[in-house]
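Re: that backbone. Tokens:
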């Protein structure tokens, strides 16, 4: 990674098997910790782990509520399924959340549910909510059309859209997002076809990190993204590399080591996935035991002094 690429950290709270009050507590605490720059939810209707009948909060409704109760954090859904809401409806929702947050939204989007061998979780969720699962190639094509619709809704007064999968007539979006020409677009995924869409449309590329994907694999996929950028004449440095990784409360040293490996592979935007139940003062703990030490190491590696914030005494 280059000196121009500043490393940022955020938190991700999965809104399953927990409550609104608990997530609000963590987000408002994180909002008061300068080293934590962003916060994230996910986009599922049923829990992926544990009891499928357990509680889970809808991501965008929850995000709007959290946007109204925080002041500083960049925020978003990591990442939204393109198969759940029509693109124009989602763009309107996103514009509203950007207005509520005062211009802090990052628009996370991914292909969503597609046919994958051996996958039982997606059919369970999509069948329960009357959603359709599509072939992977169709899912990627739909994602590309969605990205085009986003940009036009956030910048044009009125337009028609004639795509292969989506058709709009007389589409308007008022008020526009606070951010112009719109919220940064984060696209999640790692397949070759999805990375082409990332190269064409994304400001941020997101991929699940360890333990789901090894650091070496993320580096290899990043090189594929570079090649796609070169093919269309785009500077790959324009796209921030982002990942989410699970935090170990019992072994923060291992979490730090993984984060440093990711930074070494060119990842500069890291979301620490917090496991519930969320300990007391978990945001301060993450800043003290993971984020600040990693940033100190990164700064030392660049040969620049680290001007960090004073450590706290909080423990989870």
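Recovered sequence:
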């Amino acid at each position: 990674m280059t000196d121009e690429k500043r490393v940022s950290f955020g938190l991700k709270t999965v809104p399953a098997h927990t409550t609104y009050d608990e997530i609000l507590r963590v987000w408002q605490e994180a909002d008061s910790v300068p080293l934590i720059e962003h916060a994230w939810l996910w986009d599922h209707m049923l829990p992926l782990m544990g009891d499928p009948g357990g509680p889970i909060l809808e991501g965008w409704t929850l995000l709007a509520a959290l946007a109204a109760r925080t002041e500083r954090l960049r925020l978003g859904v990591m990442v939204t399924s393109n198969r759940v809401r029509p693109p124009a409806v989602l763009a309107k929702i996103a514009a509203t959340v950007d207005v509520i947050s005062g211009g802090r939204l990052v628009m996370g989007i991914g292909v969503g549910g597609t046919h994958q061998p051996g996958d039982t979780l997606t059919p369970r969720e999509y069948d329960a909510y009357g959603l359709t699962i599509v072939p992977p190639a169709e899912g990627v094509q739909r994602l590309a059309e969605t990205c085009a619709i986003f940009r036009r809704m956030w910048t044009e007064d009125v337009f028609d859209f004639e795509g292969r999968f989506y058709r709009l007539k007389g589409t308007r979006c008022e008020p526009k997002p606070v951010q112009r020409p719109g919220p940064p677009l984060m696209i999640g995924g790692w397949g070759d076809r999805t990375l082409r869409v990332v190269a064409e449309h994304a400001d941020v590329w997101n991929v699940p990190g360890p333990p789901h994907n090894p650091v070496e694999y993320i580096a290899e996929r990043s090189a594929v993204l570079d090649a796609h950028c070169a093919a269309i004449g785009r500077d790959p440095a324009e796209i921030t590399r982002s990942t989410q990784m699970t935090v170990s409360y019992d072994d923060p040293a291992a979490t730090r080591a993984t984060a440093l490996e990711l930074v070494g592979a060119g990842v500069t935007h890291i979301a620490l996935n917090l496991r519930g139940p969320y300990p007391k003062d978990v945001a301060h703990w993450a800043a003290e035991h993971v984020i600040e030490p990693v940033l100190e190491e990164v700064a030392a590696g660049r040969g620049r002094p680290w001007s960090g914030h004073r450590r706290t005494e909080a423990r989870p």
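The radius of gyration is 19 Å. The longest strand covers residues 240-246.
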